[in-house]
Each structure stands twice: as C-alpha cells, then as structure tokens.
Amino acid sequence: MPANLTPQYLEADKRFKAAKAVEEKVAALEEMLALIPKHKGTEHLQGDLKRRLAKLKAEAEQARRRRGGFSISVDREGAGQVVLVGPPNAGKSSLVASLTNAQPEVGEYPFTTRRPVAGMMQFVNIQIQLVDLPAISDEYMEPWVTSLVRPADLALLVADLAAPSVLGDLEEVIAILGRSKVSLVPSGSPPALIGWAHVETMLLANKVDTPSAEAALGMVRSTYASRFPIHAVSARTGLGLEPLRRVIYDGLGIVRVYSKPPGKDPSTHSPVVLPRGSTIVEMAGAIHKDFAQQLKYARVWGGTKFSGQRVQRDYVVQEGDIIELHI
Ligand SMILES: Nc1nc2c(ncn2[C@@H]2O[C@H](COP(=O)(O)OP(=O)(O)OP(=O)(O)O)[C@@H](O)[C@H]2O)c(=O)[nH]1
Ligand SMILES: [Mg+2]
Question: What is the rounded CA–CA span in Å between residue 37 and residue 30?
C-alpha cells in the first residue's frame, strides 16, 4: 500500500469493501479514483482501480441485460445538455413541449413520464438540448433518473406553483438527488464536495397562471432566492418562455464566435460554440485539431475594442467575436 492515501480515500475504500450492490461498489471506486493522490507511487494502484471499475461496470451492464432491463442514457446534441428535474406533475414535459421540437406526453396525473425525451431548443442560431425526465419523488421514481442529471450542463428545477406542497416537494427532489451525490448549485459556485456531481441549476416556478400562484411564488422566492436564480413561467400561457431561451443560454456558460476566412464574410449563421474563457487556440482546435498547432495569429472584429486587430494565441474570445485565423 503506497503512503499518503488520505483519510477520505481510506473511508471510500472501506465503503467499497462493505458494498454489496454493484452500483454501490462502482460509486465507491469512482470516489477512490477521484481521491487518490496522483503521483508515480500510486500509478500501479490507479491502474488497478481503473481495471476493477471497468470490470464492475461491464458486470452491472450484463446484469441489467439479464434482468431484461436496459441502461438509459441520452446522447448529447447541440451546444449544451439541459435536464428538467422536479416533482410529479410540475409541468416538466409541458415545458419541453413548448420550448423544443419534441412532443413528450403530458398528463393530468402524476408520473406520466417514464422515459427521458430529448428535444432541441432553438436559440437564435444554435440548438440546445432539453431533456424531459420522469418525476423525482419518494413515492416512486425510476432508479436511473439521477444518473442522467449527473452529466448535464445545466438543470432546470421545476416547481409546481399550483401544488400546496410546492416547498416540500422541492426539498424532496434536492434531498433525493443528494442521496446519489448530485448537488444542485447556482451557476458559478465552485465544486465544494469531493466525489459529488455539482450541477448548475435554475429554478423554474411553473404554472404562474393559476389562481394561487402569486402566494406560492412568494414562498418559493423567500425560501430559494438565495440558492438559485428563479424564473416564473407558464407552460400553458407561454408567459416567460421566450426570455427563458436566453436565460438558459447564459446559464450554459458558453460563447458564440464566428470564423471568417481571410478576405471573405463571416459565417454568421453557424457560430463556433466554446466554453466561456476559451482562447483563440482552443477555437482553432475546435474547428480542426491541426489548426491549434498551426495557428500563427488571428484578427478579431467584435465589441468596441477590436476592428480587425491582431491578437495572439492566448487571446480570450468574447461573445460575438468575428475571428480570422491565420494558419
Ligand atoms: N395551469 C397550468 N397547468 C399546467 C402548466 N404546465 C403544465 N400544466 C398541467 O400540469 C399537468 C402536468 O403536466 P406535465 O407536463 O405532464 O407535468 P410533468 O412534470 O411532466 O409530470 P410527470 O411526467 O408526471 O412528472 C398537465 O395537466 C398540464 O396540462 C401551466 O403552466 N399552467
Ligand atoms: Mg412528464
């Protein structure tokens, strides 16, 4: 056993040894891998953990197949993946139906949605993927739901302003996700818990058209305004939905820039989408992997500061920049 393994690592190791279910073992191993000090002395152990993890995941998959079950995942598409989470009947499917090309089933009864449904939401000149998920509640839930929240770029936590239990329902959703080590956080907050997934979240207070909505919205605001940005919407009347497209875009922490071949016009309908803070080199690499290496300099048109100004490889691109790469 190499030296300087942390107490947290040893804790996770203990949990791994005590675990019975394959999923628990996988979770503990993943945590060990995240926690193990990364240096030469632990290389062997790291390799060993990775092998065991791969084997266990394959076993879990086989077991699912034998049970006749299936593993559920949603392939990423577009500029970002956004999941809708919330209690039953809050209007998650209605919102996805209003904002995207998808047509998830909407029902007056709870637990209508049983499978993820992905749809594409247009925002100006890009598409963002919204994923409708089944309800999250202690009464009943599909066991795989939290595993789809984990990898998302953004979560929309949907509150049902027509439900008297609105506050308790939200607490329940947050607590259930917490049990799977998924923490809903406001955007820009640094990861706080090792081994947890921190999913940036905004709260959508839906059904603002209903009679008691105003009072319910007041309660939601006083409880959650310090934790999440809150947007009041109605999937039924469409209130608040158009501005929501930009809010979602802003929440993804991405920028759109436009590539311009020397001597030609920029391609303004097909932006290059990059994480905020990306440099010109990263932009070049996103267009073609060889470009990152070959890039000599670039010229930028944008905002007020640049009008074809020459910038170096480490220039941080800004929303709306038009960029001429010189290879
Ligand atoms: N008045 C009003 N009703 C809404 C609104 N959004 C959804 N509903 C209604 O609320 C009910 C539930 O809507 P869904 O979209 O199926 O809710 P869900 O969150 O997907 O529900 P589950 O899939 O069961 O978890 C349906 O009867 C909708 O018509 C809204 O903004 N206002
Ligand atoms: Mg639904």
Answer: 14
